[in-house]
Amino acid sequence: MALKNVIGIDHAVVMVKDLDKAAENYRQLGFTISPRGTHSAHMGTGNYTIMFDPDYMELLGVLVATEHNAPARAFVDRHGEGIERIAFTAVDSAAGAEEIRARGLTPIGPTDFERPVTLPDGTISAAKFRTFMWPTAEAPGGVRIFACQHKTRETVWIPELMKHANAARRIKQTLIATPEPAQEAAHLGRLIDREPKAEADGAVTVPSGGERADFVYLTLDQLGKRYPGVPLAGLSERGGAALVLVSGDLAATEKALGSTAVRSGPAICVPPAKANGTLLAFVAG
Known about the structure:
This protein is α+β, with helices and mostly antiparallel strands.
């Protein structure tokens, strides 16, 4: 039975070492960046968001070491910067946590937190969330998964933040490198009740649900063959590797990316070394 309270990918979390430098880097790549957010004290993290429709990217950095952010700090120590976890949209986080508990897994949470938000008119509001995580050990391909219930969508999906000079519209695929694509895809499929599908090149796709972005598990060699000419320096053999983004105008994408752009077949790419450990591949919508 499919999970009733969890639908497809909500956002991808890119862990970075220096939050403000990472935000400026992504701004230079043509993304509109939200004002900096600071999470609740027990989380010890801050973020910038890059808003699309219906999903987004989150640049996340540790501001103060806490027990809650220990796994994120360990990730950066071990792998450096890059995609550390993926969030699903939770319809109801408390009910969703009970759904996975009924499957024999012990959820972390649900946890309520918020961060202040400066709105376009200068007023201060708050973005409020309720999240739960699958157990830390349940991380297919080395990428943790969690679910996020947005209590205040209007303070997150702000229209002025959803228009980007590089014409990015939404996430199409999240690519995760692993020596064992079929095994890791099957693991995720069990966790979210979705059926993996083998691709012609040996990669394995798992739909996230709700017509949202797909997960794609593949080896680094398969990734290199999908994006020939794009340097993969900075990517590890196992872990979040790339985001495929739908562009509304590839000419605008190429212009905004400037000298960082690498044409690779039908895609315009930013190598991981230029995007804080994440290969960005822009494709036509």
